[in-house]
């Protein structure tokens, strides 16, 4: 089966190659997978993505295994649905005040996160992640370099970030988070005194919301002691493509799909940085009564 | 929103509803449906929150598609029969398309997917509007065309609605979504009897409007949007919460409250029409709904802190509770003894 697939691939590529060469060259920018408006590939960006038809793997056994994993995930989802909201019994949903979302105890916990830096636009910052001492924390370390890449259009540079992968359910469907019981993020970190930005990216289903990001700051102490930072959700402000919006609204977390939590450092200071994260959780802080920290401007006030 | 804008939207809603209900030409009915759709969109998206905009988008897409299907079915019927009268819908394909269009408008299964999301994205007042007033035109069209529609299809849609409305409401913790699923299951009860005794559908619909309005307005005055908040609203208006318990049980259809009247009469009518198994199935499926109504009632009234709550006690009422809630609540609890009078009035 796999051999026939390879033959098919080879045949189509060869046969179509010469005929379509002229056509392809005239339609070059339109056909490339990357941005339609710029064919300039930044120095740090990866090589061109293979077209999806060259990625096809006709292995029957792999497909069967994949189907088995997805079906077992589906079965687990059904059982969770029968248990109650969010997979927990109902009284647990009503009574819970804390929940641990991500903790870093093994390599597979680290695989749930993606690190990136301004190398992808041609900058010189470096970032790495590894498990800390005694497998108790994740250590995010690297060097920030604010030297601007010389490509004529970038003005600022120097950022590194770590983002979580969004959770997917069976058959790559969206998994919704219900964080409506909680009103703060709770982080146990040990930093080096540098300020970080915590970003929540949610619901990119509608294209006009795909640039929306809710952010707030996390100021770390440098000490050898662990710090427990509470960031209430009422403090997160909305920005779109990096610009803070005038119309602010509180973040709704009752049905967040493809939610990504991210930590970014971009404080314009060259040099090394280090952040150890023990766990990230949610907290229902009863002492925090604020609903939203920013004024919601009413545009059409009656005169 | 400025008062002028609110006036325009309210008048458009009343206009659209009136046009559809009083029309006997399909184009007028369609025009009324479109006016309704467009007028309610700014009300849903008033707060400009992304979730509200998403709700408005979903509402617009579904309702426009349904209106287009209404127009299409009436056009094909006019092509085949030469007339545009609403009550003379005779071509079978047109009737089929019309059934699916009305199911989309009302939120009957399998076209119910938009309803919980739209209700969740809108405020409680707008949710009340969507559940009650926006169901009037499609219900009127269903009433007028019911003799021509396929009874098996309607019965299937009804039973599926009662089933899914019950099952999908079980795991919800957001109150607006629970009320959406309750609406879907009530629509199932309304649809199952429309072929045999349309007056019972209307009775069920009016009583449903009454009870849902009481519930929505009560929740609006206590500002409870999720179950954990609902548990601590008894501090705001204790007697109102106690009445909410009875109103919710009335929605569930328990005797001797008002909500029992339509269910009893529908089961009686189905039995008279020799559909005993259908009556049994739909009654059993409404037990699922009873489960989440009881859960809401438990969270509202039967539970007292300090145990089983995760929310701080709320201590202030935002604005005075309007007296219409008292009237609606009383009517939604105590109308069963005067049921002969209600039936003769219909």
UniProtKB/TrEMBL annotation, chain A:
One of its GO terms (cellular component) is mitochondrion. It is found in: Mitochondrion. Residues 102-277 form the NADH:ubiquinone oxidoreductase intermediate-associated protein domain. GO terms for biological process: mitochondrial electron transport, NADH to ubiquinone; mitochondrial respiratory chain complex I assembly. It holds the Pfam family CIA30. Keywords: Chaperone, Mitochondrion. GO terms for molecular function: unfolded protein binding. Signal peptide: none annotated. PANTHER family: COMPLEX I INTERMEDIATE-ASSOCIATED PROTEIN 30, COMPLEX I INTERMEDIATE-ASSOCIATED PROTEIN 30, MITOCHONDRIAL. As part of the MCIA complex, involved in the assembly of the mitochondrial complex I. Belongs to the CIA30 family. Part of the mitochondrial complex I assembly/MCIA complex that comprises at least the core subunits TMEM126B, NDUFAF1, ECSIT and ACAD9 and complement subunits such as COA1 and TMEM186. Interacts with ECSIT. Interacts with ACAD9. At early stages of complex I assembly, it is found in intermediate subcomplexes that contain different subunits including NDUFB6, NDUFA6, NDUFA9, NDUFS3, NDUFS7, ND1, ND2 and ND3. Interacts with TMEM70 and TMEM242. This is Complex I intermediate-associated protein 30, mitochondrial. It comes from Chloropsis cyanopogon. The lineage of its organism: Eukaryota, Metazoa, Chordata, Craniata, Vertebrata.
Automatic annotation (TrEMBL), chain B:
Residues 290-343 form the NADH dehydrogenase subunit 2 C-terminal domain. It is found in: Mitochondrion inner membrane. It is a multi-pass membrane protein. It is an enzyme of class 7 (translocase). Its EC number is 7.1.1.2. GO terms for cellular component: mitochondrial inner membrane. The chain crosses the membrane at residues 7-23, 59-79, 91-115, 152-171, 178-196, 202-219, 240-261, 281-304, 325-343. PANTHER family: NADH-UBIQUINONE OXIDOREDUCTASE CHAIN 2. The keyword Cytoplasm does not apply. InterPro entries: Complex_I_Subunit_2, NADH_DH_su2_C, NADH_UbQ_OxRdtase_chain2, ND/Mrp_TM. One of its GO terms (biological process) is mitochondrial electron transport, NADH to ubiquinone. GO terms for molecular function: NADH dehydrogenase (ubiquinone) activity. Core subunit of the mitochondrial membrane respiratory chain NADH dehydrogenase (Complex I) which catalyzes electron transfer from NADH through the respiratory chain, using ubiquinone as an electron acceptor. Essential for the catalytic activity and assembly of complex I. Keywords: Electron transport, Membrane, Mitochondrion, Mitochondrion inner membrane, NAD, Respiratory chain, Translocase, Transmembrane, Transmembrane helix, Transport, Ubiquinone. It catalyses: a ubiquinone + NADH + 5 H(+)(in) = a ubiquinol + NAD(+) + 4 H(+)(out). It holds the Pfam family NADH_dehy_S2_C. This is NADH-ubiquinone oxidoreductase chain 2.
